[in-house]
Structure formats: C-alpha cells, structure tokens
Amino acid sequence: MEKSGAFIIGISDCKQEVCAASGRISTQNGTALEIFEKSHDEEKNTKLIDKVTRSGHTSTVEHVFFNLAFENVSVVVEQFMIEFRLASFTVKSRRYVDFSDCGYFVPEFADAETEALYKDNMDKFFDAYTFLTENGVPKEDARFVLPYCFYSNFFCSLNGREMINVLKAMLFGRGSKIAEIRKIGESLLEECRKLTPGLFIDFEEKGKSYKDEVDFGLSFERKNSGKLCDILSYTRDGEKNVAVTALIENYNCSVEEAEKALEDKDVLTNVLSTICKSSRPRALEGFNCTVRFNGVSLACLTHFARHRMQSICIPNLIKASREDYIIPETVKTDETLLDVYVSCFERMKEFYGAMKEKGATDSELIYCVLSGNTLDFVSTLNARELQLFFRLRSCTRAQWEIQAYCNELLPELRKLAPLLFINYGPSCYVNGKCPEGKFCCGRAAEMQEKYSKM
Length: 454
Known about the structure:
Elements (H helix, E strand, L loop, with lengths): L4 E7 L5 H9 L6 H6 L4 H13 L10 E10 H8 L4 E5 L20 H23 L4 H4 L8 E9 H12 L7 H17 L7 H5 L21 E6 L3 H14 L3 H7 L3 H13 L10 E10 H8 L5 E3 L7 E5 L3 H4 L2 H23 L4 H4 L7 E10 H11 L6 H17 L1 H4 L5 H5 L12 H10 L1
Antiparallel strand pairs: 1-2, 2-4, 3-4, 5-6, 6-9, 7-9, 8-9
Helix pairs in contact: 1-3, 5-15, 7-8, 10-12
C-alpha cells in the first residue's frame, strides 16, 4: 500500500526554546538574545510553556513553525486543511496534472460487499476521467468527474498555535467524525509531542471543551436565488470610509477636514485610485461585504478557500448536492463526451443512495460525491482582499468557473461603490501590464476595454 498521511518534514531549528524564551521576555530582565541563551533546559521550557498557555497567553507558541507534507490523503483532508486560514498551502493542481493513476482512499467498511461496491464505482469514475482526457477534454474540466476520495498531495506550513487548532479540530471537532482525518490527527499529535512537548501537555483534557459545530434545532431545504452571487451586506458609505481613513493615516487631519476635502468628487476619485495603486493599501480594509456564492463546484471551492484573508463559512461536505452539478462547455459540443460526463453524476446519485441503504456512515458517505457536484457558501471579504481576488481570478488564466463568479460580482460591487471598484479587475487592467510572462494571453487591450466598461 502507498505511504499516506501527514508528515512533519521541518520545524524551526530552536523548536520550543523560542516559545519558552518569549514566555520569559515580558517578565525578566535582559535582552532578547540573553533570555534565549537561558532557555535551553527542555524540562523547564516544557513546564513554562504549559503554565503560560494555560493562562491564555497562547501567542507565545506562534514562534515555532512546522512544515508538513500530506502524502496520498483524500481531497476531503485537503479541503478540511485549507479552511485553516493561518497556514500556507501549495497543492498539486488538478488543472495541469493528470490524475488518472493518482489512486483513491478506501474507508474501512464493515463488510467486503460494501467495499467491493465502493471500489467498483470509484474505478468507473476514474475510467470516465481517463476517457474524457484522452478525447480532448482539458484536465481542468475532466476533473469534475473525479470522486472526492481521490488522493491529493500538498505541503502545509503553520505555526504552533495553528497546529494546536488543527489537531483539536481533527481529534475533538468536525474532523474527528471522519476516520481518515482522526487517524492523521493522532499520528501528528504523537510527532508533535516528541518535538514540542510543552505545547501538548494534557492535550486530551484541554480538547474536551472544543466545539466547532453547532445545531440550532432547525431544518431547511437547500434553496438559493439562482444567481451566482448574492451580496448579503456591505459597508454603507464604504468609499468615504476608505478615503477618510487614508487621509487621517497620511495627514493626521481631523474627520471634519477629511470629509470636507472629499466633498470634491475629483479629490475622492484621486484618493481611492491612489490607494488602490499603493503597495500598502490598508485603508481598503475599511470596506467589507458579505457574499453568498451559489452553486459552486467542489473543484472550484478550493480556489475560493485558498484566499486566506476572508471569513469563509463552508458547509460540511456531506451536505454537497448529489443532484446538482456543473457542465463545462468542452463536453457540451460532443454528444458522446456529454453522455459519459452526465452518466457519471447519475451513477454517483444512485451509488450514494445504495451506500445509504447499506447503512454507510457520514464518515464513509463524504467520499461519495464528485468534484463537479455543488454547494453554496458565504464569505466576508474586505476591499483589500477583493483587490487580490479580482486580479487573480478575473484573469483569463484563472479557472473559468471562478472567472464567472468574478464577472457577476464585480458589476454589482461597482453599483455599490463605483469610484472604488472601477479600479478592480485583472492585473493587466489594474496595473496596465500582464505579470504572466510567457503565459500571457496577449489580450491586454481587450481586457482593459472590457473591465473599463463593465
């Protein structure tokens, strides 16, 4: 069997010593280096870190950094991990890499018959993927028929505080209900305890109070507006808020003086435009909007979730629709390809029903969904993150599905704050040049015209 799981491939050279030193520096005399030189006693460090973190000062453990390699884990694990926003990820792309022979995760079923049913269906989905790619369907479109048990490989780097959060979620929270994730958590905890024991004293006892899922005792059918995006709320007078903030930051003027200057529309326009071109556009964070994104494929969901500076609320993957799915243009024009593609989603719906009848648990059913099946989610983003979002995701090199969400959302934002969001679009529109080098689409003039008129 292939090696699989999560492995610590790197850790800060000083490990937990710097965490202990940071716990001492606020209460002891001496310089930072002098205190660090006195922080090499492992036993004392372990006790100190435990004492400091029990009192709630957990920022001290952010000074140790872990590098992880996730080897042949299901994409369910990947999705679970990338929702942790204070970590860095680099994932093997399904847009460019052929996944025909990547393999897939098989849960430990109660009986051989259920396992055989599972494997037979999963093999057929992979056969369909291979057929589509061999008949001219781009990999980024063929991937929609990949079942959510396929193996993913990725790197993840995170500090000690976020590692603790990850392990709590894996062992006591939403991840603990999925056997694969729980097993990975157990393995990681064992390794972490060897490397940084002070961070994980009485970890099981501390984790009992961890609760990351709630039930309000209500029931609803899935229903959305039918649009790609619904703006639920936004900062009123957002343009003014951003501009006033920028003027106070740069001139230390009064609110009244800033507001009076901004009564001149040309001044307001110039301030907003200048902020958007700045390398430190922090004032943009004064505009926030909350958006519901509807009918997003699981494959596209990963593109959204990789944006770190947002408050993204994604339903449990078990709630993904087995009825709804997207169909790429590349299969619509060929009857044979379309038939193969659609039959995959019909098969998954029947397979999912059969697995439920056999008494499969949510931990097993979560893999019985295709990458092209859809769900809805809500995210709150500020204008600074939206600037990056549109620069990357409205580019012609971005995945076509997320481009569609960009091109529906941006006009709506321009209605709400036209002087601000007229500055938003792909890099070639915003900066006047393409950063993609040899991958440039060569359509910069066309894109500049399109986004200036949008």
